[in-house]
Amino acid sequence: MDSWSKILDVFFKQAEHWTQEAVKILPSLIVAALVFFVFFFVSGYIQKAFKKVLDRFSDNRSINSIISEAIHILVIAIGLFVALSLLNLDKTVTSLLAGAGVIGIALGFAFQEIASNFISGVFLAFMKPYQVGDYVEVDSGVLGVIHRIDIRTTSLMTFDQIEVLIPNKDMFTKSVKNYTTTPKRRLEIRCGVSYGENLRKVRELVLMTLEKVPHRTEEDDVAVYFENFGDSSINFVAFVWIKYPGDQNYYKAQNEAVIMIKEAFDREGVVIPFPIRTLDFGIKGGSPLNHQIQVLADANSKK
To answer: For residue 174, what are the domain limits?
Structure first.
């Protein structure tokens, strides 16, 4: 009985001590709980406010939701740390912050590429260098139409109807040509004419012909320049500026320009020469062609 009475006596003393300590920290506990619930309540309004602001600057709803949710969690975490500080649990707060830092560094190394693509996606969402439907060419040589912009990748649909997923880090750090944001593009047509042609007349003919190319911009003049003396032709290049909402117009205009130049040359009798090779058997160190024929004939007769 004495042993049980001692145990009960120790238990009641400890319970009394706990009660006294609880009464002491009860005001701080109530204040800390109120502070935490205030932070928790306010975080919802802050999340909604940030979501509205982000929706004004970015069309990427998924990224906007993730950022607003991250802000929501951050406000709640701040409320938790403030509440623990009011309870004089500074060491606990320090341990939590230290642990969060270590975990953050470990996750940063483990998911470096994912984090890089995510951050790049956030910057792209705000900067808007391209949008869904734009025709772009990436530094890696991929050409296509922007099909979808996700958190980690940008989806391009090539003209072969093949979907290509490109990491947002590459879309952010490497060069991207956006042909949609530029309303026009220069078309280059190269050709050659015979040495016997009147070059000034050829130039005027090409200028008049290319002025009728489909999708040509009226404010930009057609330009034709002779480049060099080729092996069998005098070569020129023609420049035509066309409206460029997409890749199809470029190839259509290029196709029509080649056809129109060929038809105009045929109509006016302008010759586009075939490659010509001249064989000279009478040069020094060689022998005339008739001698070579005789040698072949003698060889065949002996057989």
So the answer is: 129-178
